[in-house]
Amino acid sequence: MTDLTRRGLLAAASAAAFVPAGMAFGFAGAKPPPPAKLTPATDTHFGISLTDPYRWMEANEKDPDWEPYMKAQNAYARSVFDAIPGRDALARRVSELTGEMAATRGLAIAGPWVFIYERPVGANSYRLVVREGMAGKDRVLIDPNTEKQDGVHISLDWWKPSDDGKHLVYGISKAGSEDSVIHVMETASGKVSDLRIPRAQYASPAWLPDGSGFIYNQLGREGLPPSDPTYFLRSRCLLHRLGTDPKTDTPVLGQGLQADLAVQDQEFPTVVINPGSDWALGLLIPGVAPETEVWTTKVSDLAAGKPKWSLLFKRDACVTSMAVNGDDAYLLTFKDAPRYQVVKTSLKAPDVAKAKVVVPQGPRVVQGIYWATDGLYVIDMDGGIGRVRLLGKDGKLGDIAMPIEGTVTPIFADPRQEGLFIATQNYVSPVSIYRISGGKAVDTKLTAPAPFDLSGFRQTRMTATARDGTKVPLTVLHRPDAKKSGDNVVLLDAYGSYGINSDPYFSPRLLPFVEQGGMLVTVHARGGGEYGREWHLGGQKATKANTWRDVIDAAEYLIKEGWTKPGKISVEGTSAGGIMAVNCMVERPDLWAVIFDRVGSSNPYRMSFTPGGPANFDEFGDPNTEAGFKALVGMDGYYRVKDGVKYPAMLATAGMTDPRVPPWQAAKISERTRVASSSGKPVLLRVEFEAGHGIGSTRKQADDEYADAFSFIFWQSGDARYQPKA
Q1: Which residues are within 8 A (CB) of 572 and not within 5 positions of it... i.e. 6 or more apart?
Q2: CA-based, 20 to 30 A from 564: which of 303, 480, 588, 678?
């Protein structure tokens, strides 16, 4: 999710003004690497020509210059970071806070076992522990902190216990690649079987009710490298029986298995088996689009390897989520309800067109539904604040009081059990896990309070007005003594894609930036889901410019209100947020101190031809159509970079094992900006050679990245404590 790039070199003449230092930059004798070779390639479609000077980078592992180029860029970036006064002290503070803080991400209850996904104090990675009952003693099942493969760290990508808890299926990958390999463990003994099933990045396993086997999704053809454009295409679901050779696994959902069930190349078939129901669901997930086509079959037929799939609804039903109770199906849909509503139908005799509305659209955005024995739990987004309602079996819908104003994340529900487990957090409140039962949220005590004082931090809500009059929410993390001095160092963060919220979250990693006087501002830009389907569509495809212009207008608002001024504001965009960050740079280069492009999609047109490209056509545009191609061109900041413009400093990051945003995205935008800019400001490319998109990164990898980024931002914003000596 991140893409970074930044460049050249400079010395500070004063805290307020910078002058270019030229190519003979003198940080401990550091010298910038030579410019990348040029291999211009021109694409012409629908009357539009795009010239790409660095197309060779896309060949990456096939080009002998690729790895030396990336190593040289990273070495240079490292020499610059290491020469910034205050960087090491900041890094120690980040590591101190993250190391002191334990963290819990996941929970599941199966049979007598409680599974907890946690990172203990001081650990680098998350591990999985199990206990008998909520009050039992923890026993470690899987600990990536103590294991390596081929000399590199591993990650636990996903895991799921059988309904009775006797077995656990899980995915392991190396170096943050997310290229999961399926393993199976016996819970009671901790014994791991010899089973290994590769290409299981999106396995989404579903256990058979008797625990004798599970169904999983496996990606395309064997032998394809993850960089192959067809790597994610034509995946299928297979049934595996414990103790059998996976070569004999039975295909149960995918192409060519049933005449009336057409599975598209880019769709991800997924099977869901709901405990207590005789019906299994077959989901055809169309990549990143929220709405899904769903089929049903009897669980007994599926377990026999002979499912008879019947259509429940197509994508035009606009259903994004389901909850099943026996024969009843509750559907979350945005059809005729841009803030979503919940309807109910029967799986025995489904008729979605005549489904009964049980939770009508209201002022809140309904974002999730979960069935438990006490009713249907409804998760709402209320202007950036998470809420929970319960639709009881008596048909009454009521609110449940939340312990804090912040993000609410459901982490476990079972149709056979009462209640819902949720995690709550915001920028100043650490994650806490609650069980909602009997109409109340009760602390499970599975998480510990912060071991350090949080009284020096505040979370504030603000609202900026975009140029078209739209009100854009801002969430600000700051010190209590922050003043409208105009001198605050500000870092704006935004995402604005896929209808995903930019929810407030607690991270000790962010606190040192605020301790040093910085302000962190999340812009809830259009393209996200904060206000439902319309907010999403307002920053998608042809309307994508609203995403970065919301951020620019938020910066202008903060300047007008006296919080900061041009040259003291930086912008961070991660993954799809890279589209926003790069376009902020090219559209308003005068505003920013640093463009922090974290494993970002900075050349979205060419992203269309990567393995993940087809799955993103619904969000950004299909390059094979005129409308899609023009939408992609309109949001592609790489082609908008112009020679001779005084661009701000840039920090681009890349992970060499990234399966989502390939590292050449960061390399291309940083090189193009470095060559084009006339400001003399540094453009750096920071590369993790044993990490990917950040999902499987270790705590230390993430700590070091943010220490580098924060110190770089303070330097470029004129903070006297971070000015290197020429």
Answers
A1: 491, 492, 493, 581, 596, 598, 709
A2: 678
